[in-house]
Amino acid sequence: MSKTITIDELAVPFKEGQTIMDAALAAGVYIPHLCHNPEFKPHGSCKLCTVNVNGRNVASCTLPAVEGQQVLSDIEELNADRLALTQMLFVEGNHLCPACEKTGNCQLQAVAYYLGMMSPHYNHFYPQREADASHHDVMLDRNRCIYCELCVRASREVDGKNVFGLSGRGIKTLLVVNSASGLLGDTDLAVTDKAVQVCPTGAILIKRHGYAVPIGQRVFDHITIKDVQTGGGDE
Amino acid sequence: MKQFEFPEISRILTPILARHGGDASRLLQVLLEVQDVCHFIPSEAIDLIAAHFGVPRVNVEGVVGFYSFLSTRPVGEYRLLFSGNITDQMLGKDELMQYLCNKLWVEPGKVSEDGLVSIGSTSCTGMCDQGPAALINGWPLTKLDHNRLDLIAELIRSRKPVADWPAMLFEVVDNIHRGDVLLGQPFEPGAAIRATLARGAKETLVEVDKSNLRGRGGAGFKTASKWSLCHAAIAEEDGGVICDVGGHPERFIVCNADEGEPGTFKDRVLLNSYADLVFEGMTVGARVVGASKGFLYLRGEYRYLLQQLEAVLKRRREAGLLGETILGQADFSFDIEIHLGAGAYICGEESALIESLEGKRGRPRNRPPFPVTSGYKGRPTVVDNVETFACAAKIAEKGAAWFAAIGTAQSTGTKLISVSGDVARPGIYEYPFGVTVSQILDDCGAEGRPYAVQVSGPSGTTISWKEFDRKIAFEDLPTAGALMVFRRKRDLFQVAQNFADFFAHESCGFCTPCRVGTELQKKIMSKIASGYGTASDLEELKRLGHILKTMSHCGLGSSAANPVLDILEKFPDMVESKLKAFAFKPAFDLDGALATARTITGRDDDWAHL
Questions:
Q1: Of B63, B192, B310, B493, which one has the fewest beta carbons inside 10 Å?
Q2: How confident is the model at residue A204 (pLDDT cuts 50, 70, 90)?
Q3: Residue A188: what are its φ and ψ, rounded to 5°?
């Protein structure tokens, strides 16, 4: 008989080596997340996927599933805390959804929809962050970066290039690129790189593809992120 | 501003890189030396260092950006950083800093026009018993006052090399006021190793277990459990066990001397005057777990101890207490290497410390796996506090029964307490566990009527005068060793605000709740301090506290709200007296927003205000 954990009273089977998130996604149970992408090694930084396991809060994307774990996820307290974290992500950057090409396809926006975010709640930080249009095919807008490091991981693990990295510390954390000039155009990034495809927000965009799909007809305009991420497909 | 040019950067770098070899774990050590020579890390240096270690440039840049003592822009030939702990602040740090800035014509946090000097703040430098303190190009200055700053300003203006400054400016004293089994009894170097070899490694582990020694860093994990887990673990690669040069499974012993918790300075004293005891404890630990290599991770603020610690290590090697075949034991080799930190409190967290030892950004790892099974370079690693190793040496020498008879049943042995703040005799006090706070306050001559005490630094607990009967022990008030005393009339809100600023500055930025939450907490505290706080802000602080406590990645985030929540709970008057009567008031200050315009136009008349 296969091993199981319990997520919100539902018995969820898992295989040895799977995390709680892996088991949940495989069983069609949605736990909100942004920095996690099943194609990459778990990271555990956004903390949206925090669940309560046997009384303790842990990131479900990094914690290995163990027989008999009692996991609470879709409960009022955790959803309220996830909402607060999402609001924090909005106010620490400059997220102007109506003016962003990614609107409707943006996972940050979609998670905010899912959690019922009606306002940013906190005061905006309005940080000064640089956009970088130096690359021929790719636009980097740091205003929208949430430090999930998916581009960092994709460039390192899939593209074998190390185009992206983090510098700074704390609230001054900064996405940097692998060139002496600090410009994306001076790196060896190619538009076909995996790193260009994985950004959950609009921080990394492919140039000359603006508004190919009209607003209103985009992924999350019609389907919740829960359905998208548990329905077997990426988007 | 004068541009620094380093056309011969490779000539500067070549000897440094040659000395450190090709292992990328030396990256941070190399960067510290480059910073020393160039007063920043030039872009060309980043390229050369990246090429030398075979790591991406972006990683090197990430490391430079992470540590406070490294910078990608020039910070002046003289970089003076005032210690920003609340105890320094109470001793007049803010006014002194402004005084020196005025004297040298420089704005706080900026480099002077001629590129000569910059003046700023840094987190607690561990000199709270002899503050106000500062660092000049990394070297500690103590007991600062106007006279000393006059002298320092003169030395800087005349461009006198820091090495030639008068020694009295750098004098650091131990200030031991009460010694017990660690500080008050003599120790013969080698005694604990001899006892360990005579008794046997397994039997020594049993002794450490029976002694009930618990980690002195504050968390109180049982040392014997850690050692035994590490001893049982092996690292594997391609199906084979990873072995050290001696052919044994590779394991590491790490001494955490990243004493960054504000108000704590006992490791400074242990390393200054009891280094043998600490190194001996590490060596005993190495014998027990089967490690051949150890590291002392020394916080950058204590680099002034580096040379003398290296001398102690050398002496111990010569005495056969370190290195190959220790005390003639053919199967016992162990040596210790010292790594310097570079201004990052988070590196006191054991997995962040290991990352830093590997030359990376100090970011706490995901657990499991824990360091005892997968630590430094993926090998089983024990990370213990400086004081824990000192205790371990004593236990190895004198036995478990002797040690367990001291203190309380759950908290055996003694604890070093670093006392600072409003007391007549700040310094180090060693007590058996179970001592009451009021006993300590009596002994250190707490001035006036002590009103509140911060136990174990900002991440610990604020206790009020009603709680002074509480005991220092894992079962009541666990502590990493700091005890900061505040007399009546001290503004405890300012204390909590100082701590909130500290956590925001030291958050590593990895996880959302801590990265943004500590900054939000700092902003709200600042809003209240400037007279714009309302009752709703207090609710917001409590809500933030809940998120920090329950959602953060590591202990920094989960304890970052402690001082704020404690003051709200125990001293509500101190906060409420600062509030506006309104239920809500926006943080935006219209008149304040014009400050930049006033600076630019040089105006401060009535018409320039709303």
A1: B310
A2: very high
A3: -95, 25
Contact yes or no for A47 and B519 at CB 8 A: no
Q: Nearest CA to CA, how far is A43 from chain B (Å)?
A: 8
Q: Which residues pair with A205 in a beta bridge?
A: A139
3-class secondary structure, A232? coil
**Would you give the distance in Å from CA B530 to the centre of its chain?**
30
According to the model, what pLDDT value does residue B5 have? 55
122-161 of B, contacting A, C-beta below 8 A: none
Query: B552 touching A, CB under 8 A?
Result: yes
Q: Are A177 and A104 in the same domain?
A: yes
Distance CA B391, CA B414 (A): 9
Check A45 against B512: CB less than 8 A apart.
yes
CA distances from B540 to B80, B522, B532, B583 (A): 36, 12, 14, 12
Percentages of chain B per state (helix, strand, coil), in multiples of 5: 45, 15, 35
Do A117 and A62 have their domain in common? no
If one counts every other C-beta atom within 10 angstroms of the C-beta of residue A4, the result is 17
Whether B478 contacts chain A with CB within 8 A: no
Nearest CA in chain A to B513: A85
Paired sense of beta strands B176-178 and B236-237, if any: unpaired
Closest to B115 in 3D by CA, of B152, B78, B168: B78
Q: Is residue A235 part of a domain?
A: no
Q: Do residues A90 and A206 both lie within one domain?
A: yes
Distances (CA, A) of B303 to B125, B181, B344, B416, B506: 11, 27, 14, 22, 20
Contact between B580 and B531 under an 8 Å Cβ cutoff? The reply is yes
**Closest by alpha carbon to B189, among B318, B81, B75?**
B318
What pLDDT band is residue B1 in, cutting at 50, 70 and 90? very low
Residues B492, B571: contact at Cβ < 8 Å? yes
CB B512 within 8 A of CB A46: yes
Residue A232 confidence (pLDDT) above 60: no
What is the total residue count of chain A?
235
Mutate to test the interface with B, among A167, A187, A188 (most CBs of B within 10 A): A167
For B425-461, write each residue's pLDDT tens digit. 999 999 999 999 999 999 999 977 899 999 999 999 9
The domain segmentation of chain B, as residue ranges, is 9-66, 78-170, 178-404, 414-490, 493-576
Per CATH, the number for B178-404 is: 3.40.50.11540
Q: Which domain holds residue A58?
A: 3-74
At A52-105, the pLDDT tens digits run 999 999 999 999 999 999 999 999 999 999 999 999 999 999 999 999 999 999
CA distance A56 to B11: 54
Q: Which of residues 283-322 of B touch A (CB under 8 A)?
A: none
DSSP B71: -
CB atoms within 10 A of CB A120: 15
pLDDT in tens, B187-205: 999 999 999 999 999 999 9
Tell me which CATH code domain B414-490 carries: 3.10.20.600
- CATH number (3.30.365.10, 3.40.640.10, 3.40.30.10, 3.30.413.10) of B78-170 reads 3.40.30.10
Q: Are A46 and A160 in contact (CB under 8 A)?
A: no
Residue B173 has pLDDT above 60, yes or no: yes
Q: What ipTM does the predicted assembly reach?
A: 0.97
**Nearest CB to A89; choose among B46, B509, B512:** B512
Q: Tell me how many domains chain A contains.
A: 2
